[in-house]
Design brief:
This protein is an alpha+beta fold and about 80 residues long. The protein has three helices and two strands, in the order ααβαβ. Helix 3 links the parallel strand 1 and strand 2. The longest helix is centred in the C-terminal third of the chain and has 13 residues. The N and C termini lie close together (about 10 Å).
Length: about 80
């Protein structure tokens, strides 16, 4: 939002302010990135009903001493 504000302030057009500042197309699969580093990656979670099972699995792994990354897709501002 700050970048959009600055673009408008300097008359550069907010419609292009996302260039170089937003990460999409393709979206980053953070779970796959975690797996590439040797840890458990769960997700991406798009449906809220999938959160509870993901958290349950994540907690089980953490209790065993393993690192876990849960990728939850949220709505951007």
């Amino acid at each position: 939002m700050f970048v959009e504000q600055q673009a408008s302030l300097h008359n550069r057009g907010a419609q292009n302010s996302h260039i170089g500042t937003k990460l999409w197309d393709p979206n980053i699969d953070y779970a796959k990135m975690a797996q590439a580093y040797g840890m458990e990656g769960i997700g991406p979670i798009n449906d809220p009903k999938d959160l509870a099972p993901a958290f349950k699995r994540g907690i089980e792994l953490v209790k065993r001493g393993e690192p876990v990354m849960i990728d939850v897709v949220t709505q951007p501002r």
